[in-house]
Hints:
Two copies of one chain form a homodimer. Chain A has about 210 residues and is an all-alpha fold. In chain A, about 60% of the residues lie in helices and about 0% in strands. The relative contact order of chain A is 0.09. Chain A binds a DNA duplex (30 and 30 nucleotides) through helix 1 and helix 3.
Amino acid sequence: MNESDPRVRRTRKLLIEAFGALLTEKSFHAISVQDVAERATVNRATFYAHFEDKYGLLDSFVGDAFKEALEHRLPSDMAFSVRHLRILIVTVLEYVAQFNGRCASQRATDRDLEPLIQSKLQSVLHAFLLGWLQEVPPAEGAEPIAPETTATVLSWAIFGAGLDWARYSDVDTVEDRARQLLALLIGGTASVLNVSPRAPASATPTREAVGAR
Amino acid sequence: MNESDPRVRRTRKLLIEAFGALLTEKSFHAISVQDVAERATVNRATFYAHFEDKYGLLDSFVGDAFKEALEHRLPSDMAFSVRHLRILIVTVLEYVAQFNGRCASQRATDRDLEPLIQSKLQSVLHAFLLGWLQEVPPAEGAEPIAPETTATVLSWAIFGAGLDWARYSDVDTVEDRARQLLALLIGGTASVLNVSPRAPASATPTREAVGAR
DNA sequence: GGCAGAGTGTGGCTTAGGCGACAGATCGTG
DNA sequence: CACGATCTGTCGCCTAAGCCACACTCTGCC
């Protein structure tokens, strides 16, 4: 299954589009593999050559759309920078909010898909960040931090904030929320927790520092 | 090349749609087979499995669209009747007029395609009429007339009238023109030429009849 | 319980479509 | 004129997609 084969790309696209169209008409659970294949003018057997099952399709559907949204605002040739991180945050907040607003998972009967979808979104965000961070030259002087770690922290933090904002988006604007997030993620929690910044494990933490809880 | 194979239908559709899209951007002569194949996400070699060449595609493009327009207004389960013939006439008049109004053949550089297109439209109309007329039981008493003959007469007459109306559509409305056409085609020219109707070859024509001119 | 109906995965065989390469056309340009 | 560039048809080889059929699993219903 060579992804560069035009037939493969086309069939995948047809299936995903058909699925999207069906989702506007029925709940996820009411959609059968047959339905999707038929709508896509693709053989049912071919469906299984592309996706594990209905859930695999959902996975790709959600993931592709999100990836596309990210790459739309942040083309892959854009290097990492604080400015761009800010754009990323805004994009994620808006996407998550808009996703929770309408779309499939909002149907009462599909409520159980939310965890699936959310974990997918987070993992896509993780992958996106990782690809980005791996281009960044490691800072000198500071202790080395694996890009994987940074990607994990950022993806969970941003995504979580997205979910939260989706629920309470009337409290403040995207821009405002993004500003706060950015400050926290770049500057660390030190100033908020009233401890001195940049305290490595070996250094003496001011006051109770992290252990304060 | 089994026409019922979904792959075949899909590829054909893709090629024709791509061609239509390209026609809104460039002239027919500026469009290459490569362009069409690429836009349709189909291999160039596959193009030739479906169409003779660029002209073959044009042929199908024009023919399919016209056929679709006809079948849209006159589904195949509609039996022949004067009422339906009237609808057919209106449809053809409007289609031809609208076709000459915008669309490909209007580009100055594509003016030479008009005869090709016109003969295609006429032949599609002929085929449509023939399929229709073959369902009609032959009238009793009158001399037998092959449906092919009727289809030929009707298709040329209606199509020609369509072309004419396309040029001078400001003279009268479609409805009016259709009424006149219908009267002529059903009643024959006898009343206009002031001769007695239903004059078979063997009967004595009143006055100079056809030879009058 | 049993049975009919609809959906699901899977496998074997056939066929349309993708790929690369080829020999000609056609055409603008030095 | 020759040249490079671009497009055209065509061919052989390979692979994705279509088709049919089978063995399940559910689910509703008598």
